[in-house]
Amino acid sequence: PIPIIITRLSDGLMIEVNEATLRLFGYTREEMIGHSSLELDMWRHAEERAKLLAQFEETGEVSDYLLEYRNKGGATGFVSLSARRFILDGEPCFLGIGKDITPQKLAEDRLRGLIDSAMDVIVSTDENQNITIFNHAAERVFGYRADDIIGRPLDILLPTRYREKHRRHVEEFGRTGVTTRTMYQPGTSYGLRANG
Known about the structure:
By secondary structure, this protein is α+β, with helices and mostly antiparallel strands. It is built from seven helices and seven strands, in the order ββαααβββαββααα. It has helices at residues 19-25, 29-32, 46-59, 102-117, 136-142, 146-149, 160-176, and strands at residues 4-8, 14-17, 61-70, 76-88, 91-100, 123-125, 131-134. The strands form two sheets. Strands 2-1-5-4-3 form a five-stranded antiparallel sheet, with helices on both faces. The chain has a two-stranded antiparallel ribbon with strand order 6-7. β1 (4-8) and β2 (14-17) form a beta hairpin. The model has no long low-confidence stretch (mean pLDDT 90).
């Protein structure tokens, strides 16, 4: 049930595909074998494929690379592709294993739309307190663009005097799942804007 493609590196032609690949893309084996993904227009954005190949050339492998694909009928979806270089019958080849993540990606996009349309600031962090979500309201309030702040430490948004206390509060919540704060208690929150 997992799509697998073997492509010859010398000319980019597919030399083997499994049934899951045929189902995903809607082609017959004869339509795929001996043809390239470019020839069949399988990737919605050629630049994504070019970035994938550049990374592959540099390291000889890629892992969980997000690509938007196009099937034979023109419908598009998303695949998470992992690939590795190997030798088959003396020829360097690309072994690609994909996972169709279209439903997950569409759900994430819908959630992103809801978060971005919220009037309230929404900032989320990972377990290391690095920012993972920063909505449009947060951009307006803090003066940072989401692209510039995602992945950075949450401390950048906190006045220095509150950083340690906040860090301890988050760590305690992570350990116990209990917070002394509630959404229904009015209070004051302090933040640090991009302009200081």
